[in-house]
Amino acid sequence: MEPIVHTIFEPETSTWQYVVTDLSTKTAVILDPTADSLLALVGEKGYIVDRLLETHVHANHLTAATYLQDLLTRDGKKLDRLLDDDEPTFFCGDSIFNCDVGSARCDFPGGNAKDLFQTASKLFSLPPNFKIYTGHDYPPNTPRSTPQAFSTVAEQMEHNKHLRTGTSEADFVRWRTERDAALAEPRLIHQALQVNIRAGRLPRDGLLHMPVNVEGW
Which residues contact 74 (CB under 8 A, 6 or more apart)? Predict the structure, then answer.
């Protein structure tokens, strides 16, 4: 039996979050949590959450992982575990997006356009009918009118506007690097990175440290 994937879109940050469940056991996994709507869904369906997963350290919104962990932890058992590189493979986070959006920027801490190209190549080596669920969608900037949670490997290989089959690594790295250099930083990047690297917890001193803009002084 295939797992059931519930897709929940958070329009303020154009973020996808997911609840994946095995109906035979009612156990569920939550991926990239941001909102209380996840709790409502889990309660309505009677699911038992045994994992909270983050696909990456989000740079433009705050995770609700620790908040949900505190509410969902049973018998003192925490839900922390680092995943290996290839599990689960079909939730790609902020690496590639839907075909008409393309790829994610690579200029955040630890980002690298060459690494992103290699990640996309790895995703495209999956069976063509595999669904790739993405971390964001931005339909107002595309011909589509509603957010789309996934596309297939075959669709990505044929239609991804940045990474379709035939795109060379050198061309992608050059274009992505030049493009990223012209983009403004996300509005919440400084808050998000400090909180999300700690799975939703504040820094130890309880303070968010923000850079001071002294331009023009």
Answer: none
Chain centroid to Cα 7, Å, comes to 12
pTM for the full predicted model = 0.80
Structure tokens given for 25 = 């056991």
Over the stretch 90-144, which tens digit does the pLDDT of each residue have? 899 889 999 999 999 999 888 999 999 999 999 999 999 999 999 999 876 666 7
In 3D space, the residue among 116, 148, 108 whose CA is nearest the CA of residue 132 turns out to be: 148
Q: How many domains are contained in the chain?
A: 1
**DSSP state for residue 160 in the 8-state scheme:** -
Rounded to 5°, angle at Cα 57 from 167 and 139: 55
Task: Judge whether 166 lies within some domain.
Answer: yes
Token pair of 79 as six digits: 């839900």
Is 215 within a domain?
no
Is 9 inside a domain boundary?
yes
176 domain-assigned: yes
Dihedrals phi, psi of 51, to nearest 5 degrees? -150, 140
Kindly tell me the sign of the dihedral angle through the C-alpha atoms of 119, 28, 84, 88: negative
Report the CATH number that the domain containing residue 180 is assigned in CATH. 3.60.15.10
Residue 175 structural domain: 4-196
pLDDT digits (tens, 9 = 90+) for 31-89: 998 878 899 999 999 999 988 888 888 877 778 788 888 888 765 455 456 666 555 75
Question: CA dist 51 to 47, 93, 127, 180, Å?
Answer: 12, 17, 26, 34
